[in-house]
């Protein structure tokens, strides 16, 4: 913080997003729910500066022509993360440091050759480019393309995008914000940073409550789309073609004869070797689908359809769809099918050529590269969740995939079937085969099912 005119850049201060100040004649209270901080003993000049900050961005000269108490107050607020700082040059805003946590002390020096952290992600947001790093205490909004050139490393050393004093300040701010590291290899020297990929750490931080996300205003079940977009129906449109009826087991009989929960939990194993000479039958496949993923009931509340299935789902939305990809099932032609969980039928989706492509990668986890008898592809109609939830829907979808995989594992064990979940899938092949837009329905999991080799 400096009132000197030795440099051509200027700091502009404002309360960070979501923060404000309530003033009384003798005190002030900083508010950024759920945080609250009282500022006792403020001077009249400091009170006036706080009122000015409530009105919008201001320089030190806007807050007070020359008052050491105001300088001290602004420095203290900035150092505790209450203020966003915009760096302005020749009347143009260059970038804004937008804190969401308490910053560390400013660096005393900046090493030559520092480079952008592998965890820093730059994206467009409300007209600006924002630089985010899950290990930082702030985001940086980039307003000027010259800053983007410098931050991205695309600026030419022969023709500097910014004057030296501004570039020096930017380099210091990037280090302070933890958006740069000493060199390109430094983040690979430790296991703790090398083991995380940028998208994984960013997703982890963005989809959980943290210093960045402290309230429920834009996080969780906000029903943000209510009034703007109609909710997606629970049931997707039927695929054309004649439906294949499936056997319906007697649940009451199964209650009496099924092995205990303890038995199936203890006996469950991943099966990687299947008996193609005596494959799973259509009736057994139908029973497995009925017991694990059928829709038991539908109810509507406030225009949204909610379902009940054998496995739990956040908000009873049940966005998952199931596609048996069949190579060898007694009584059923090979091909890709959609399981209609409402009518308990299979509907043809695609032919043998697609089956081969979808099954090929699954063979990597099976014994001696054999192909699955059945691969159940799990897809998510993401809009069902995204209509209600903000920031967390994809994380919730993956949790649902885990729940349903365990459900299928345990029921398959109870039925004497073999099962092994897949840790990956060919999402492009699925979307082409199912004829769906990936932004509307995407492959999020899969599990191989069949008759185990004894």
From TrEMBL:
Domain (Cyanobactin oxidase ThcOx second) ranges: 115-208
CDD domains linked to this entry: McbC_SagB-like_oxidoreductase
Pfam families: Nitroreductase (PF00881), ThcOx (PF22767)
Domain Nitroreductase residue range list: 266-449
UniProt-recorded name of the protein: SagB family peptide dehydrogenase
Annotated source species: Antrihabitans spumae
């Amino acid at each position: 913080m400096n009132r000197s005119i030795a440099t051509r850049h200027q700091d502009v201060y404002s309360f960070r997003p979501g923060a404000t100040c309530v003033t009384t004649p003798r005190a002030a209270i900083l508010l950024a729910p759920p945080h609250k901080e009282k500022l006792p003993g403020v001077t009249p000049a400091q009170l006036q500066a706080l009122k000015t900050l409530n009105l919008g961005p201001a320089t030190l000269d806007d807050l007070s022509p020359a008052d050491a108490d105001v300088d001290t107050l602004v420095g203290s607020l900035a150092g505790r993360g209450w203020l966003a700082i915009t760096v302005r040059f020749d009347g143009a805003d260059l970038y804004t440091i937008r804190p969401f946590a308490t910053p560390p002390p400013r660096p005393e020096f900046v090493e030559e050759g520092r480079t952008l952290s592998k965890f820093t992600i730059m994206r467009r947001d409300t007209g600006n480019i924002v630089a985010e790093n899950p290990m930082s205490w702030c985001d940086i909004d980039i307003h000027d393309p010259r800053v983007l050139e410098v931050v991205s490393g695309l600026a030419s050393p022969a023709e500097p995008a910014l004057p030296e004093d501004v570039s020096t300040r930017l380099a210091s701010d990037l280090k302070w914000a933890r958006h740069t590291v000493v060199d390109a290899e430094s983040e690979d020297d430790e296991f703790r940073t090398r083991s995380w990929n940028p998208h994984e750490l960013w997703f982890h931080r963005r989809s959980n409550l943290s210093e960045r996300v402290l309230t429920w205003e834009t996080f969780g079940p906000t029903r943000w789309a209510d009034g703007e977009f109609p909710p997606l129906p629970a049931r997707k449109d039927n695929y054309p073609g004649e439906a294949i009826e499936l056997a319906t087991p007697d649940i009451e009989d199964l209650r009496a004869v099924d092995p205990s929960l303890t038995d199936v939990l203890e006996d469950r194993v991943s099966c990687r070797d299947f008996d193609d000479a005596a494959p799973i039958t259509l009736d057994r496949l139908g029973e497995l689908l009925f017991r694990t993923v059928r829709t038991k009931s539908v109810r509507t509340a406030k225009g949204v359809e909610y379902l009940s299935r054998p496995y739990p789902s956040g908000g009873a939305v049940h966005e998952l769809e199931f596609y048996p990809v069949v190579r060898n099932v007694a009584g059923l032609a090979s091909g890709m099918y959609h399981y209609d969980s409402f009518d308990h039928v299979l509907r043809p989706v695609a032919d043998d050529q697609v089956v081969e492509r979808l099954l090929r990668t699954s063979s990597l986890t099976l014994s001696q590269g054999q192909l699955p008898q059945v691969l159940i592809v799990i897809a998510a109609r993401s809009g069902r969740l995204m209509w209600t939830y903000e920031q967390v829907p994809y994380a919730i979808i993956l949790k649902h995939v885990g729940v349903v995989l365990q459900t299928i594992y345990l029921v398959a064990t109870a039925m004497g079937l073999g099962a092994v979940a897949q840790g990956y899938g060919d999402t492009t092949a699925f979307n082409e085969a199912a004829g769906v837009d990936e932004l509307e329905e995407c492959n999020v999991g899969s599990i191989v099912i069949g008759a185990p080799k004894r």
